[in-house]
């Protein structure tokens, strides 16, 4: 079952930094491959009992401040809005990718059925031509 955004329970989550601003170069690609884009601080290791709204402030639409984590200044509403728009676009893109992957899988299935049918008809044609001779 998928966990809510910000409550990643995979083994890789223990090695990710607690704050997005404290990343090694190249950390953005690794974060995006994990399937989420953080806009606030998160716990370095999620609890085994699942997540709550307090563990994942993004789920409730609230960003909590944690000690030692830089937070955007109150005047950075435009930056927060842009991040929210990017997150929304990212979610939409992921949903589109999932739909397209399902369609590709179905097309591959249909292609296989078509090839099986062609092989069957070719075999029948050879058998029929062999009987006529």
From TrEMBL:
Q: Where is the composition biased (Polar residues)?
A: 1-16
Keywords, in A-Z order: Cell projection, Cilium, Flagellum
Q: Where is this region: Disordered?
A: 1-75
The protein's name in its UniProt record: Sperm flagellar protein 1
Organism whose genome encodes this protein = Patagioenas fasciata monilis
């Amino acid at each position: 079952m998928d966990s809510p955004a910000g409550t990643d329970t995979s083994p890789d989550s223990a090695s990710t930094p607690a704050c997005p601003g404290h990343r090694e170069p190249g950390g953005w690609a690794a974060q995006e491959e994990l399937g989420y884009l953080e806009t606030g601080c998160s716990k370095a290791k999620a609890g085994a009992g699942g997540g709550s709204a307090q563990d994942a402030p993004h789920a409730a639409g609230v960003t909590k401040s944690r000690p030692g984590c830089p937070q955007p200044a109150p005047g950075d509403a435009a930056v927060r809005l842009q991040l929210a728009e990017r997150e929304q676009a990212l979610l939409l893109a992921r949903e589109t990718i999932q739909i397209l992957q399902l369609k590709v899988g179905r097309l591959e299935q249909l292609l296989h059925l078509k090839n099986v049918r062609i092989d069957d008809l070719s075999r029948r044609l050879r058998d029929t031509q062999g009987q006529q001779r």
